[in-house]
Amino acid sequence: MKNFWTYITNGKYWIGCLKNKVFLYDNNGIELTTFKDIEPKFAVFSPVENIFIVKSAQSFFSVYSADTKQLLYKVTFAKSFAVQEDGMCFSPDGKYFINIEEQQDLSVKGHADDKCISIYETQGFTCVARHDLDSKTEAKFIEYGSDGIPYILGFNRRDDGVFKNRFIAKLSERGIVEMRVIQEDDYKFYENFKILQMYGFTELAKKWSGFAFDGTDMTGFENKSYPFKDLWSNGSII
After folding, report:
1. pLDDT in tens, 147-197
2. Which pairs count as long-range contacts for 188-191, CB under 8 Å and 24+ apart, including other chains?
3. Among 83, 68, 77, 84, which Cα is nearest to 24's?
């Protein structure tokens, strides 16, 4: 097996991601096809059907069918030189896909930080809602809780752009709500764990994880769960 950055499964298929290729395997480890149209960052399976999304570092994501081994959609979500390395997820019913997107143009001097959270329906992957964030709010990762609510992990800046605090919050139809402050150690742990989880706990991801640099034992992490919902329950109300 190749030394993948990302290697995830839905129980029927496996996806492996390298620098400029996405490999699709069956559950017996047989390679079914290779996609070469993307520089992959993260990948995620739909919870209800055999489609998966690969997010590129280059401001688009691709939607593939594992059953037909075909590219279904390529969605460009930003005209930006910013590296796209933030979170994404499907809703539990598979009807929506949520993506945290960097919209800022790094080629423009004096640019503003323009980040948004976009929601796509999954029949044709049309954007049905977009929550624009101001320059003081930096959303990083997202996941649904057992209560069916999406939770956002991120941090805030002051008006002068200097770091202010770290937060966990809920995402609603109005945008980010019920924000709670969390401690630095909690933020770092949940961020590092979420990154490893999105990569599929591969050995390569573990090697370069923040956990490796601070000496945290990652043994058995792939069998553990640290829900954002629990972090929100323990956060301090702003």
Report:
1. 999 999 999 999 888 999 999 999 999 999 999 999 999 999 999 999 999
2. 188/214, 189/226, 190/141, 190/153, 190/226, 190/228, 190/231, 191/140, 191/141, 191/153
3. 68
Contacts of 224 (CB under 8 A, 6+ apart): none
From the list 228, 195, 221, the residue with the least C-alpha distance to 210 is: 195
Which pTM does this prediction carry? 0.92
Residue 167 buriedness (CB in 10 A; 0-12 / 13-18 / 19+): buried
CA dist 228 and 105 (Å) reads 30
In contact, 100 and 138? CB cutoff 8 Å? no
Q: Tens digits of per-residue pLDDT, 17-76?
A: 988 899 999 999 999 999 997 888 899 999 999 999 999 888 899 999 999 999 999 999
- For β-strands 127-133 and 137-144, DSSP reports them as unpaired
**Whole-number Å distance between alpha carbons of 102 and 84:** 6
**In the block, residue with structure tokens 């800046």:** 157
The rounded distance, in Å, linking the Cα atoms of 98 and 151 is 11
How far is residue 81's CA from residue 103's CA, in Å, rounded to a whole number?
9
